[in-house]
Amino acid sequence: MLSLLKELKEIINSSIKMPLTGKVLVDQDEILEIVDDLYRIIPEEIKKAEEIKKEREIILAEAHEKAERIVLETKKYVTRLAQENEIVQQAQEEASEITRQAKAVAQEIKTGANQYADEVLVNLEGNLLKVGDSLKDALLMIQQGREELKNS
């Protein structure tokens, strides 16, 4: 098509110029032949341009669809990461709470065990004191029995 337009321009530029009018004399048959060729070629060029436009629209639609999928996948990924981070944070908070509770329970057990041990030791001390008193009484009775034996 461009070659035909170039040829048409050359014909016009090389044609005889009419003085004082700015017009030229051209071979009508030669010009009409080029115009006919243009009429034949232009629809093909328009079809090609329309096909290219359709292909462009399809490519743009696919690219837009792909971009939307990527954005959606990215949002899902970010949401999953945020949820995982939230889950990790919750797990850490729960672990801290469990550790705190375990330490509190351990302290209660330790305190209870100390109190129990103290009570057992107090009871043992009381029992030993009673046994000691009984032993003193028994010793006194033995001493008295020996005294009576010596005196008799």
Protein architecture, described:
The chain has 152 residues and is mostly helical. The chain has one domain (2-127). 90% of the residues lie in helices and 4% in strands. The protein has 2 helices and 2 strands. The chain has helices spanning 2-14, 28-151; strands at residues 16-18, 23-25. The chain has a two-stranded antiparallel ribbon. The longest helix has 124 residues, at 28-151. It is rod-shaped, with a radius of gyration of 58 Å. The termini are far apart.
- Low-pLDDT stretches: none
Helical coverage, percent range? over 70%
Tell me the span between the first and last alpha carbons: 161 Å
The neighbouring-strand order within the major sheet is 1-2
Order of helices and strands, N to C?
Answer: HEEH
General shape: rod-shaped
Structure, briefly:
By secondary structure, the chain is mainly alpha-helical.
Helix and strand layout, with pairings?
Blueprint: H1 2-14, E1 16-18, E2 23-25, H2 28-151
Antiparallel strand pairs: 1-2
Search tags:
152 residues; mainly alpha; rod-shaped
